[in-house]
Design brief:
Keywords: Membrane, Transmembrane, Transmembrane helix. The protein has eight helices and 29 strands. The chain is α+β, with helices and mostly antiparallel strands. The protein folds into three domains: 58 residues; 228 residues, Immunoglobulin-like (Sandwich); 168 residues, Immunoglobulin-like, CATH 2.60.40. Strands 4, 5, 7, 8, 21, 24, 25, 27 and 28 form a nine-stranded mixed sheet that branches. Strands 1, 2, 22, 23, 26 and 29 form a six-stranded mixed sheet that branches. Helix 1 runs antiparallel to helix 8 and helix 4 packs across helix 5. It starts with a helix and ends with a helix.
């Protein structure tokens, strides 16, 4: 009985270790990449506009938990003076990082003298693979030259298809004639050098080289599409109902409609079909219903379809193309402000920002916010920078900052500079007044091994318990022999 009791204890210990490490394995990441906000910049480097003062406000009090970072609203309000004796039409811009799907949630507001004005949105580079914030690559992407270069309405020049190229669109209207689910399949063979294929609405696909099988499980009427660029293909249709294979012509299950369609309008129709941004905001100031915005989206999708077709032997599924909806990329917001001669205007921009979350070295997460000040040096002059920061309850203390901040009261900090500093601005918020660092050795192992640690601990635990159990069995055998 004593032996059984010890074994029960060992088993309970093993279960406890495994459970603890399962929790550890499901814990959140220790690092979550954020991206900087930025001063507005003047597109024309020879502008006669002077910044008399700027009030920069970070409001982090109402946390919007979209991921592991802290999100807040940044608002920059400028008093600007036209020093010229002539009126000026000044194009301004600022970059922000978002996804296509979340852009309309970025709460972008541009005002002149308190009145909302329209702005255009230009889609720039994908930043999903930038990695560590501090390696300098993000700063390069946010450089003045790179941002201005991205303000273009030129169409993407693809390798796998031409501007204005037309293709054949096969619309397959599938009707389920039974209460059971139908496994609907299309087989096709093509020459990837002469033909490119884009499929939409299917649940699966497979094959190799020049043969592809498209599959869809149908329990109600459904529309499937196969778009073919180049040489035509033959669609071979089959279906499985209740495990019984049916061939084309065995039943009136579907209808195929064939039509000639231009690629660009077809891609835009897919964008509108799956776009969560879509074009609902017809009357707001985002201009997301404009032809320019549609052109920007086309460039994003066309570049992605070009890449997928190259990598996937001339074949692509629409869902692969639309994955870019969730890629983080730089968007440039562009607008124009009219300045009468020798008069000033109040220009305000506001949008959401996200921190970088870093818990690689500290017991609790640090949240770092970056703000690029260098673009403001393009103005004729810049004076009087006022900074205000309202921190959230869960990380109410500013523990580090590149500009000296004065705490006014709980969760409110301020700073004033007569002119721009020579460096960009960042600050770090934390739950406590001082950073509490992890054990150095533990931190190094955890950071380098990441989620391998739980598995390693489990293996060690199993080995130890198994060794103890094996020794106990040997002792039992020796006792029995005696």
């Amino acid at each position: 009985m004593k032996r059984i009791g010890i074994r029960v204890i060992i088993l309970a210990l093993l279960i406890n270790i495994l459970a603890a490490n399962i929790v550890l394995a499901n814990a959140g990441p220790t690092y979550w990449q954020g991206y900087p906000a930025s001063e507005i910049l003047v597109v024309d480097e020879n502008s006669p506009i002077k910044v008399i003062r700027e009030n920069l406000v970070f409001d982090l009090r109402d946390i919007d938990r979209l991921d592991f970072a802290i999100h807040g609203q940044v608002t920059a309000t400028y008093e600007m003076l036209n020093t010229s004796s002539n009126s000026q039409s000044v194009q301004m811009a600022f970059p922000l990082v978002s996804t296509i799907n979340n852009l309309y949630n970025s709460d972008i507001i541009v005002q002149v003298d308190g009145v909302d004005i329209p702005f255009d949105v230009y889609a720039g580079d994908d930043v999903s693979t930038f990695g560590n914030r501090f390696n300098g690559s993000i700063d390069e992407q946010f450089s003045f030259d790179n941002i201005v270069k991205g303000i273009t309405n030129k169409k993407y020049q693809a390798k796998n298809f031409a501007k204005g190229q037309k293709g054949t669109l096969y619309k397959i209207i599938v009707q389920s004639t039974t209460e059971d689910r139908v496994n609907f399949a299309i087989d096709l063979e093509y020459d990837s050098e002469k033909t490119k294929i884009l499929a939409d609405g299917f649940n699966s696909y497979g094959g190799r080289e020049s043969k592809v099988t498209l599959g869809s499980r149908v329990s109600e009427p459904k529309e499937l599409e196969v778009f073919v660029l180049g040489d035509p293909v033959q669609l071979e249709v089959s279906a499985d109902i209740d495990g019984k294979q049916k061939q084309e012509g065995d039943f009136n299950l579907y209808e195929i409609i064939e039509q000639e369609v231009e690629l660009v309008p077809y891609l835009i129709s897919l964008m509108e079909k799956y776009q969560t941004v879509n074009y609902r905001h017809q009357d707001d100031n985002t201009n997301m219903s404009s032809e320019l915005w549609k052109q920007q989206l086309y460039n994003v999708y066309a570049e992605n379809i070009d890449r997928v077709l190259t990598q996937n032997n001339g074949f692509a599924m629409s869902r692969e193309l639309l994955d870019v909806n969730n890629y983080k990329r730089i968007f440039t917001i562009v607008y124009t402000v009219e300045f009468p001669a020798e008069e000033s205007k109040y220009v305000s921009v506001s949008y959401k920002v996200a921190s970088t979350m870093d818990q690689t070295q500290t017991e609790k997460p640090m949240y770092r916010f970056d703000y690029l000040l260098n673009p403001a040096k393009k103005w004729l002059e810049f004076e009087n920078l006022q900074i205000e920061i309202y921190t959230p309850e869960e990380a109410s203390f500013i523990v580090e900052s590149s500009i000296a901040l004065v705490k006014q009261n709980d969760r409110f900090y301020k700073a004033h500079l007569d002119t721009l500093p020579n460096h960009d601005f960042y600050f770090i918020i934390y739950e406590d007044k001082e950073l509490a660092f992890k054990n150095t050795a533990y931190g190094a192992i955890k950071n380098s091994s990441g989620y391998l640690i739980p598995g390693f601990v489990i293996m060690v635990a199993i080995f130890v318990v198994f060794s103890i159990y094996k020794r106990m069995n040997r002792r039992d055998l020796r006792v029995n022999k005696k």
